[in-house]
Structure formats: structure tokens, C-alpha cells
């Protein structure tokens, strides 16, 4: 290959390269490519932080049966161990980190005059009852989000019922406790509300049922 031909070949490569560059430049001027800021396809759970699922409040077992078999003395011991660092329980006892708790069951939320309650607790409507105390003592931060009571809660259902039974015992105005019978878990043969068991013979009249009354007179004059 002569030098002339080499020059030709070199020139051809150079021209092609320049043409290629120019094409890129002109193309870039004519068309304005946009880089996507976000992926056009959104796949749930990829890339973005997963949406926080609203924590469903844990359903507690009915308090009534637990309260019916609760042990007040054990509840008092637990309260001494778990609560006494912040609360007093005697009538007229002073408030510490937490308010005095004498008579709290049946009293309004934030029942101690002058205690610096959080808006979260003070804003709860109605007076305390056993079921509210149950929710509260299970998880204070869930019952009153933003509460100042720095206490995780009592997860054991019977222990919590024992503490509530103790609080009842120092609350002269406590409302009636929830029913001791769990509605769904009625043992066989039990007679809730005095209704006779369904196994009764059909021929026997039901206790308390009205005596068989004569049928309505068929020959009543039509009006
Ligand atoms: C670390 C301190 C602390 C501990 C431990 C604690 N509490 Fe409290 N408690 C508080 C504070 C503070 C408040 C007021 C909360 C607010 O205003 O949000 C409070 C409020 C309460 C209330 C509501 C009083 C009212 O007047 O409405 C009850 C009931 C209660 N506590 C029961 C208990 C029981 C029962 C225990 C033990 C199982 C316990 N607390 C453990 C600090 C504590």
C-alpha cells in the first residue's frame, strides 16, 4: 500500500469520525433528551420506603372473666413493684412523677387537681372505667398517644386484671365491673340470663312463658 493510499484511508477514517461527532452534536441540539427523574414504572415495595401499615389495636380478651378471678392482694403487690416509683395509692397521697391514684376508677381522665397532665391524657373523654384502664395499662402509648406516663405496659392479661382489681378496691366511685361471663365462651349447660337449655323436651312449657291463651275468636264480627 502506497503512502497516497494510506493518506486516503486515513482521511476516510478521519472524515467518518468527524461526521459521527457532528451527527451527535447536531442530534443533541435538535432533540433535547430528558433524563427521567423517577422510574416510570413503580413497583410496590421496591425503591420507595414501604407504606407504614396502620398498627391494628391488639384485641384484648374480655376483662370481665379475668377480673372475676382477679387477686387484689397480688394486684397491690404488682402495683407496688411497677407503679409506686411514680404513683401513690393512699387517700390524699401526694403526687410524684405521676398523679396520686386513689379513686381514679370512675373519675375523669386527669383526675388530680393541679397535676400537670399531658393533653393526650387530659383530652380523653368520659370517666375512667375498668375497660379503659385495661387498654391504658396494656399499652399507655397506644391508649393516649403522647402521654407522659413513661411505662411500657403490662402484657400479662391476668396480672393487668389483678392491678385493675386493686385500683377498683381503692376507688369508691368505680363503675360496675364488666360482666364476669364472656358472651362467646358460655360453658355448655350454663344458664345465662335464666334461659332454659335448648335440650328441654319440646312438650314442656317454657318457664316464665305465658300460659297457653285461647286462640283469637275466629267468629269475631268482621268490620
Ligand atoms: C415512670 C413513671 C410512671 C410509672 C412507672 C407509672 N406511671 Fe402512671 N402515670 C405517670 C404519669 C406521668 C401520668 C400522667 C400521664 C399524662 O399526663 O399523660 C400517669 C397517669 C396514670 C393514670 C391516669 C391518672 C388520671 O388521673 O387520669 C393511671 C390510672 C396510671 N397512671 C396508672 C398507673 C399504674 C397502674 C402503673 C403501674 C402498673 C403506672 N401508672 C406506672 C407516670 C407513671
Automatic annotation (TrEMBL):
Q: Which organism is it from?
A: Roseomonas acroporae
Report TM segments. Answer: 12-31
Give the Low complexity compositional bias ranges.
Answer: 196-211
Give one GO molecular function term: metal ion binding
Q: Which UniProt keywords apply?
A: Electron transport, Heme, Iron, Membrane, Metal-binding, Transmembrane, Transmembrane helix, Transport
Q: Where is this region: Disordered?
A: 169-223
- Specify the Cytochrome c domain's residue ranges: 70-171
> Which named protein is this?
Cytochrome c family protein
InterPro entries cross-referenced by the UniProt entry: Cyt_c-like_dom, Cyt_c-like_dom_sf, Cyt_c_1A/1B
Compositional bias (Pro residues) spans?
212-223
Amino acid at each position: 500500500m502506497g503512502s497516497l493510499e494510506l493518506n486516503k484511508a486515513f482521511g476516510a477514517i478521519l472524515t467518518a469520525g468527524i461526521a459521527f461527532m457532528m451527527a451527535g452534536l447536531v442530534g443533541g441540539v435538535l432533540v433535547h433528551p430528558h433524563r427521567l427523574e423517577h422510574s416510570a414504572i413503580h413497583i410496590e415495595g421496591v425503591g420507595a420506603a414501604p407504606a407504614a401499615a396502620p398498627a391494628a389495636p391488639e384485641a384484648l380478651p374480655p376483662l370481665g372473666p379475668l377480673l372475676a378471678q382477679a387477686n387484689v392482694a397480688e394486684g397491690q403487690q404488682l402495683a407496688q413493684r411497677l407503679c409506686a416509683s411514680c404513683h401513690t395509692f393512699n387517700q390524699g397521697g401526694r403526687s410524684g412523677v405521676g398523679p396520686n391514684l386513689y379513686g381514679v376508677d370512675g373519675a375523669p381522665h386527669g383526675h388530680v387537681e393541679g397535676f400537670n397532665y399531658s393533653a393526650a391524657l387530659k383530652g380523653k373523654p368520659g370517666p375512667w372505667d375498668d375497660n379503659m384502664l385495661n387498654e391504658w395499662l396494656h399499652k399507655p402509648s397506644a391508649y393516649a398517644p403522647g402521654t407522659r406516663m413513661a411505662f411500657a405496659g403490662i402484657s400479662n392479661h391476668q396480672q393487668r386484671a389483678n392491678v385493675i382489681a386493686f385500683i377498683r378496691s381503692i376507688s369508691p366511685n368505680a363503675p360496675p365491673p364488666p360482666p364476669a361471663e364472656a358472651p362467646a365462651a358460655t360453658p355448655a349447660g350454663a344458664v345465662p340470663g335464666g334461659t332454659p337449655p335448648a335440650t328441654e323436651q319440646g312438650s314442656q312449657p317454657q318457664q316464665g312463658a305465658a300460659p297457653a291463651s285461647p286462640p283469637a275468636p275466629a267468629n269475631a264480627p268482621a268490620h
